[in-house]
Amino acid sequence: MKNDCLFCAIAAGEIPSNKVYEDDLCYAFYDIAPQAPTHFLVIPKEHIGSVAEIGAENSAVVAHIFEVIAKLTKELGLESYRVVSNIGEQAGQSVHHLHFHVLSGRDMTWPPG
Ligand code: AMP
User: In the structure, which protein residues have their CB atom closer than 6 angstroms to any atom of ligand 1?
Assistant: First the structure.
């Protein structure tokens, strides 16, 4: 757990969140400022700053997170959805703990803004 990391504190239960799912490796919770009718985030419990910090030593958790996304979206009845991870300021990353946005329930445009 990294000091002063908002998502480390959420994963540890130190800051409240609206939990969707939790296991030993990851934590999923609804976004506080939803950008779609369904918008939740899936994060690893271990601190990884962003996709840019994924390597052979920590990539297994990413595969696990995608398995969890497939499971949760099925359980929630979501047939179409978008998975997004922003890396760096220009792409819009505001929290520096790896997270995958899962957005669903409205028409989406491509390319994203
Ligand atoms: P990003 O801007 O891609 O780094 O995504 C960070 C996301 O975290 C944003 O969509 C925020 O709305 C969301 N967020 C920030 N603080 C909280 C919080 N306390 N609980 C839930 N979501 C949050």
Answer: 6, 17, 29, 31-33, 86, 92-95
